[in-house]
Amino acid sequence: MTLTQNAPDQHSVQPAADQAVLIVHGRDRTGIVAAISAVLGRHGANIVSLDQYSDNPHGGAFFQRTVFGRAGLRAALPAIEADLRTELSGDFELEWQIRDLSVPKRVAIFASKADHCLLDLLWRHRRGELPINISMVISNHATTADEVRSFGIPFFHVPSQGKDKSAAEAQHLQLLTGNVDFVVLARYMQILSGEFIERVGVPIINIHHSFLPAFIGADPYAKAAQRGVKLVGATAHYVTEDLDEGPIIEQDVVRVNHAHSVVELRRQGADVERAVLSRAVLWHAEDRVIRHGNHTIVFQ
Amino acid sequence: MTLTQNAPDQHSVQPAADQAVLIVHGRDRTGIVAAISAVLGRHGANIVSLDQYSDNPHGGAFFQRTVFGRAGLRAALPAIEADLRTELSGDFELEWQIRDLSVPKRVAIFASKADHCLLDLLWRHRRGELPINISMVISNHATTADEVRSFGIPFFHVPSQGKDKSAAEAQHLQLLTGNVDFVVLARYMQILSGEFIERVGVPIINIHHSFLPAFIGADPYAKAAQRGVKLVGATAHYVTEDLDEGPIIEQDVVRVNHAHSVVELRRQGADVERAVLSRAVLWHAEDRVIRHGNHTIVFQ
Amino acid sequence: MTLTQNAPDQHSVQPAADQAVLIVHGRDRTGIVAAISAVLGRHGANIVSLDQYSDNPHGGAFFQRTVFGRAGLRAALPAIEADLRTELSGDFELEWQIRDLSVPKRVAIFASKADHCLLDLLWRHRRGELPINISMVISNHATTADEVRSFGIPFFHVPSQGKDKSAAEAQHLQLLTGNVDFVVLARYMQILSGEFIERVGVPIINIHHSFLPAFIGADPYAKAAQRGVKLVGATAHYVTEDLDEGPIIEQDVVRVNHAHSVVELRRQGADVERAVLSRAVLWHAEDRVIRHGNHTIVFQ
Amino acid sequence: MTLTQNAPDQHSVQPAADQAVLIVHGRDRTGIVAAISAVLGRHGANIVSLDQYSDNPHGGAFFQRTVFGRAGLRAALPAIEADLRTELSGDFELEWQIRDLSVPKRVAIFASKADHCLLDLLWRHRRGELPINISMVISNHATTADEVRSFGIPFFHVPSQGKDKSAAEAQHLQLLTGNVDFVVLARYMQILSGEFIERVGVPIINIHHSFLPAFIGADPYAKAAQRGVKLVGATAHYVTEDLDEGPIIEQDVVRVNHAHSVVELRRQGADVERAVLSRAVLWHAEDRVIRHGNHTIVFQ
């Protein structure tokens, strides 16, 4: 037992005032890093962190995440962007975007009856662990309404029964359009249509309750018990039209044994699910994840 | 993303009706297992699980945890106990106790400003993951009162400032005496006096925010950052008069690196703390932990 | 840096003189533990360790591993076995076997060009970590012959090219029959015919270089890189006619990221493979693994 | 079991021809990254990977590791170095060095009776996992001489008994001076004098058989067993005059329990020791580790 009379116990992710993140990806060639850092230098911006990855330095795919800062950044951003446009779009086959880190991304969380992933995100957000703005929670069950609202977050109940989800998805689109920068499926357990994924137009992160690609589809813990595996896990991935096949952001596992029933696997797995999902949401919120084909580059 | 139309999502630890746990420890010798299982057999009790450990089969210390069951167990327990008394107390230098598993242990949780361990226990309890009865939460700060009470659990604010804790401890004893079977210090951050530990008369579990015996005492994350370790951890242990020296129940760690500030170590560590504490509470609640000198035997 | 002037550095698994292991499995019912421990007690045998598991105490499957000892055990074993036969075969639907732990199991290791799993087993065996007797190494390549023989172990080169493995398998059977208690495929990379598996008549342990059931079949690290997983693993399992579908003994994983090439995944995975295989071999050698349908009960 | 008929099984770290690594550290200020990348760009060098860390962007400590390449690198290096000298030494308080990655670092391994860390390094080196040149093995016992020499590596037996190590250390210096770029203590178990550390003039990596700072000094596994910890670990660190207090490079742990004897803890720990040491050696060999006070920056 420990006495820490005066030690503060702050866990908050400090608001990154006067900092922005620049993501660049495209074809690798000599001089990209130099060009970017020269632009930042000209505008008096200091590089806070720089991560770079190339899958082949001779014309492969190039990825760079740069966090930079200076006093009065917001006012300076347009000029920095204009300068980067000149430097990067001429010579290089590159895509890039800049985001002001003082403005948190807005997210909608979709949930169902199982509340562990939902509550973990709400609770981490309240502790200041997640630099996000939770715009709303949408659930096909009303069971968590009071709990969600006690966090000061709007809750919308959109039932989704039967095979035809089009009415529910229309409601979803109405709620989401213009209001969110990404969506998190916190054990939502409903398949989203390809049309919805396209129309919503923002990244969707799902937590799958297995170590993908093992146990794709429904009820993975029952399948895991049946196969007699010695580890169960969870996978956070971006949602694509192909069920459970989207780019993986994060995975983890926990050791189990013959004595664990399916109920116990679910309980153990629930801890992994919420840990994995919270990491994926944090990394996405901080623009640490770059999609590339069916892969992700994660700059931790 | 997964469709699990009909899969129930239950995590509850089922109430173990008609089951009891028998803990036996003492000097090892031939025939203990046979004697115990013979008694249980005579009373028609089936052995559900049996764990046994001896640190030296030739007269070392012997430990056995046996879960057994039969229909109408509660009515049969007195006769089983009487029979065990006859069998075990004559020939063997053994201590033993039986507990009816349908009656959950009563616990008081002590907390302070940091709420992550407290909330994790309350939340797991509500999900049915912990077979305990949370009698009350006691805190030296009122900050978590509303949250705790929203779980339907009594909250008592007992300030504890200055060096003299005797008034606070007197209040604690008044609240606890007769009402709890064990106490959990969920980042309580106050030293308990030896007198209090003795008078409260029930086991006290503490979570220390380091991998003991590294970083004993105050502010271990700052010490960890200063030492440049590559893992930080947490340790659940029984409280004794010697600060951070009691028998360890459970430990775990998480990987960190040079880029983690003290704030970030605290955040990462907080996840380990609550995971480790919840496992220690679960195992204690299920009588899986046997104290032996300054060690624990944990039958998982 | 540490000075340990007088500290011995022994890692050897001590030869378990005068100890035997009893494995019992069958239909659960009241009184099995009592019957077994009574028999052992009558013969003056002390229970060194006892592990028990039942998947359902009301007539489910029951598994028990009991290590017991007494002076002059070998001479006493026939009488103990006779007594157990009387006690267990009458009333109970149980199978059981006893093994004298002073006699290590004999094993043949099959290998191919990749030598990491093979060398790890040879090296652990020399250090005294594995209570086995390595009768021979069989390989379809001659490359490791000198290395194997330098450990004092016979090496047999049995080429196995083309689709028809029957000639090779006939040679294998000639070498193995009567000489080994189990076979280990240490990255042997050749499919064994169902006929061979049946005729060899002893358990065969394989190490698969993925976290099964993910990436069944050939070249799992390439598949893992293609899928963009964040963990790669290995699986030790008993070989059955169904490729990569046999009962899993042990699994583990290691964290990887986007920057790891397939070559690097193989290198990282190689460490997991040898760790997982060595644990599976140790547990099998100590009769800690009980097969039950397509599962294993592992008493660690 | 897997058939991989044609899959190569190569694990070798490819020799990085035409690549060099540049390490820069010093006081952070605007423009360092730009200046370095501009110089590399002017010389037609492509940045293969770039890692950067600053403990405070406003004048804190700055660290950068850059791997770059171009055809005919060796011939171009002097000009690149001259250019960097001009750019970096004028304006910035920076230290930097460049190393041609096609020339592996030369290492001497010190060992004693325990051979697990030594053999693991020799074996990984032979597999091509470690881009090092093992110049010699020095041991205070002759027991591993044959084994070491079978790897084609010189073995020197330098006894080191009694309190006065000066004769042994004089021999060590004679063997090492001019011949090695770093030294690895692979469970050498002898304290090196401050004078030796200073005179040898190259980094020394030690593996300590505990999770430092827990269990500093001799016989940590016995201490771990006594304290009843639930994890044991190992720590690779640079050797300084203060015993077990040098900058930590890497650490890891493994789960243990009450049933593990000291012998078993040593066996489990040995696996962690060799894994941790091999990672530390790899990272040091690739210039991924930068010492900063009593810390390390490790760019993985």
TrEMBL record, chains A, B, C, D:
Pathway: Purine metabolism; IMP biosynthesis via de novo pathway; formate from 10-formyl-5,6,7,8-tetrahydrofolate: step 1/1. Residues 21-99 form the ACT domain. The keyword Hydrolase applies. SUPFAM superfamilies: ACT-like, Formyltransferase. The keyword Transport does not apply. Its EC number is 3.5.1.10. It holds the Pfam family Formyl_trans_N. It catalyses: (6R)-10-formyltetrahydrofolate + H2O = (6S)-5,6,7,8-tetrahydrofolate + formate + H(+). Keywords: Hydrolase, One-carbon metabolism, Purine biosynthesis. The active site is at residue 244. Belongs to the PurU family. Catalyzes the hydrolysis of 10-formyltetrahydrofolate (formyl-FH4) to formate and tetrahydrofolate (FH4). This is Formyltetrahydrofolate deformylase. The lineage of its organism: Bacteria, Bacillati, Actinomycetota, Actinomycetes, Micromonosporales. The gene is purU.
